[in-house]
Records
---
Amino acid sequence: MTPRAEPLFAPDAAAGGGGLSEADLVLLSAYLDGELEGAEREALAGRIEREPALKAEYQALRASHDVLIAAARPEVSALPAPSESFAAFGSRLSRALPDEVPVAEALQPSWFRRIFLVGLCAFGGLLALLLVGRFVDKMGGPKPSGWALNSPGAKVKFIREGRVMNADGFEHFLAGDELLVDAQASVLVQGPVGVKVTASGPAKVSFWPGEVHLEEGRLAVEGTGMAARDSFFVRTPDGDVRANGDEEHFQFEVATQPAVPAP
Amino acid sequence: MDASPEPASRRDPRAGLAASAMFDAAGATDEALLSRLAEGKGRETALPELFARHGDKALRLAHNILGDWHASEEAVQDAFLRVAEKAHLWRGDASFNTFFTKLLVNVCRSRRRRGHDVLAKGKVTGSPSKMLGGVAASSRITDIARQMQAEELRRTVRGALEKLPEKFREVLVLRELEGLDYKTIAEIQDATLDEVRIWIYRGRQRLRAILEGREEEFFE
């Protein structure tokens, strides 16, 4: 299954009407926040003056912005005072911490230390490459390029070259494999290859790195060989939603609705 | 205990701290205090000082996301504990505010998912669309708002915010209620500027639709 290729913006703005594209409206929103600069800002300001539909949308956007600010930005005086327990938390902070917390390495190691570390890393990397190479050569066949880990009791299957296989706990997969995940599964897929995952319900799928697409009640995941710092999206009918930004890993939790059967 | 002026460096706020045997937390920058924590020091000076400086402001942000005062206090306390645990990950490339806000938003997000916040459990009563009488014309939002009592309007808009998807709600709170710029929001959300632009726009559109009783448009 190939992920649906969606444009970055919807072609027509649902609320805006008047032939405005979503790209126009996104710009308008940024303009309202003073987040456009230079030529982009000048061009949009000119268009607002010339195009009645754009001007009306700008005014509506500004009105709802003003209402939100007025209603939801709390007056400091209207907020309750922090509890005594909260106010005293500062003095209790050090006791609340665990005895040992992680410590950063020194920022500026000596040149000798830097050279030593670089040499050590290079040696370690070379050794690892040799070992992995020998291991893979011994195994023969295609080289494993990632792994998937599913929660106990969950049903995860692989389709590889037309054959369906059960995945037990820790499983190597290959580029082109397809994973079928049941609704209860919690799956972690890791590896920069193009493996596809299909979930039949509200499964929890962590994929790193990769993209997630939600289509008609099915969750489809496809790796695209991106680097670890690239962007990850959950695309839903409601728009693009960024993955949760957890520092240790990226996790997607998408509760899907069952597909509506044809009448 | 530390007790002398901190030689905070603007270029590298962590530079020189290791050599500093004495430390004046009150005179140090936020980033110097964070550096102290990154080195495994200052848990009795730097951390309480950061809490004293930013605790109340953090409480307001947590309240804007969670909507419950007690849950917000717990979230802020949790976030400050995480500052000490995560300080070693800071590389001096972001301000303390950005580093801490990211931690706090993550803590609030986790709490919401675990159902700790009051608003998400449905204690806000009344549908915004009903309260607005189903009036759909966006240009009339301000007229409708003027007809409502301040508290009613506040609850209505809060209720509408609660209905937004998590990401839209977070960026709107950071932008509209905290007044952060897009670049800072992008750093906090670990996103690009384009993504932030789109989320803020879509959050606004969705919020407007909810207030106008058109939210079903997004769920068809």
Note: Chain A touches chain B through 64 residues (CB under 8 Å).
---
Amino acid sequence: MYHALLTRRYLTSKVMPLLASLAVVLCTAMVLITWSVMGGFLRMLTQSGRSLIGDVRIAWPNVGFAHYDDLITRLQSDPEIEAATPIIETFGMLTLLENRTDGVLIRGVDGPSFARVTNYAETLWWHPLEKPLSKDQEGLDVRLDTHNRDLLAEIYQDGLRLKETDPATGGLESSMVLGIEVGGWNVRTDWGGYYPRVQGIASAAGAIQNRNLFMPRSGALPLLVVPLDSKGRPMEPVTRTFPIANEFESGLYDIDKQTVLVDLPALQRMLHMNAAKRLADPGAQEPTAGFFEDEAAPAPVVEDPARVTAVLVRQKNPNGDPDRFREHCRGIYAEFAGAHPDVPSAISIQIETWEDANRMMIEAVKKETGLVLVIFTFISFTAVFLVFAIFWAMISEKTRDIGVLRALGASRAGVAWVWLRYGLAIGVVGSILGGLLAWGIVTNINEIHEGIHQSGQWLGDSLVGARLSSWFGWRRPWNWYIWDPKVYVFKEIPHRIEPWKAAFVLAGGLISCLVGALWPATRAARMHPVKALRFE
Amino acid sequence: MTGPWWPRCCSVRALRKTYRLGRVDVPVLHGVDLDVARGEWIAILGASGSGKSTMLHLIGGLDRPDKPRNGNPRAEIEFQGRNTVQFRAAELDRYRSTQVGFVFQFYHLLPELSVTENVLLGAMIRLGRLGYLRQRAPLRRRAREILDAFGLGDRLRHRPSQLSGGERQRVAIARALINDPAMLLADEPTGNLDRKTGGRILDVLAKVRSDGGQTMLMVTHDPEIAARADRIVHLIDGRIAEGPGDPA
């Protein structure tokens, strides 16, 4: 009973334990905030990676596999599967403005089914916007313009189906959707949006004409691919100019910089992966002609079914175990492969989850998160030393009290428990307050961030700020965006407090205090009662 | 007052204690023998450094006597038929909390606790959490009664820093009495008080003894204060020399 009484009184009547609690509060909050933001960042990256892959990818790269329609039918008849879509993944060369040529990852997709399997519809950038992005407080986003609403709606629909209406014929024309960073003509703003660049072009007469580089309006770019035959041998390169239907932003810079989406049937034709009658062996020598024309041996021709390099699958349960779902898909593929001898076997085919597909990126971010956490945990160990130092000093100050407790019959263990309990109380108070502080900061991190930015702006606009800027020649000293949307892909700081992480950090704070209190408590317990009573 | 017919409370035999100061052994007690009758008030009178407090600490179980060496006999502190020198640490803790009440020269009240809490501290230690919670009401009543009897009924919620020296010492006596110990050990209880206040404290101790029948060992260097006791034991250079105040 006296332990509780003394703990309560020591905790409320001294400044030093309050300082120790404060240290624990700050350390706990620091680690939890870091973990939550890094965890949110990792989650955002993985979700972005998932946004264009779906849950599972069944792939046979480059050459592709046939009868994919049957596979998709089998997959879609499974109760666990929401949808499946065929795609082709290949590489090619995109000729940009002024004949700049970039290597790109080309994905041939069937727009509507691709949107059912992935979050493609949400990634399309150009669409009418009802309300501005959170940081676009002045409403500068061109997508908000009500005059362009119909046009943007049309562009959005074109992007979804990867087809544009040909003004000449009125029919639908296969088109291309580019990653928002592919062309380099979209300028990222400090509120996390884009506006199309305007290019000044000098005419022969010397006048400068402005050219709007908003590509979905009227842009078209040539795309070059190298088809492979069914045996994987390269064939003549094929170039086709596609109109730009829209642009997408996946949230991953690498994907947005290097990926273009093309209407699947058009890419199949370019890559000779569409259904057609073809020479059985196009690489073989031409048959030798006989003396008479009708004596020439005809080249063998086969019915070549359409092929794709992958089928993407989305499961009904968005939180289902991806590894289990992958094996489920493998089972369905095995049945499919059993029915079609000309497709890769279930053992050879690549079946991977979206996590497998993005493993390099996910692992890198996980390692970074771990590294940051280790560094911050080491920093947090200062709390251990702080508690240790404060307890050591307090025990020196309370030596006589310890002697009194022993004189009144308290055991060594009892005296030690007074101090351990005291450390525990500091840990509990510090950890809980630290957890609450972290929760408050993390859940309002974007508002806090914005507040910091606006304070900087206000200071910069003030007389003092203007004077300081002119004295020191500062150009942008008042832009206090720590995570500048112009630099980072995310518009808002990602965050996510997970209960188990919070519990882990809070327990860490508690254990740190116990560890810090352990040695001083042992010292208190080992004090000789007579020496303690005579201590001056 | 002591004799073979008188019920004995405590008996000390061959009590030796040596302190080590750096590399030098400093003997403080050189084989002290003392019999204390139940309900007796003994004053241990001696100059500074004569070993008075050391003797009190050994009897009270705060310290242990020297182990026998150089042919010296083994020290014994017999309390109610048991040799406390042989007690293990837990037994000694129990002995201090149940049988002994200490009163110190400098009161040694815990500054963060109120008067009542200081008094109840010994009971909390003796009974443990559950035991104390079960008996909290009667214990608080008893603490209040003792403090009322000592004229501190209006100081129950005060902190030690808000009390005078005499009041603090009365609180310390109340704390020593809360567990109703068999023996009260007072180390210069008036040493930090003026004569008038010290006299009042001695009155309190005398009343405690007469009301509760506690055995009292009081250490002092003042013969006038010692004269209030039933018997005076002179401690000179770590040896007992029974003085003229001894009624036996």
Note: Residues 54-288+307-357 of chain A form one domain.
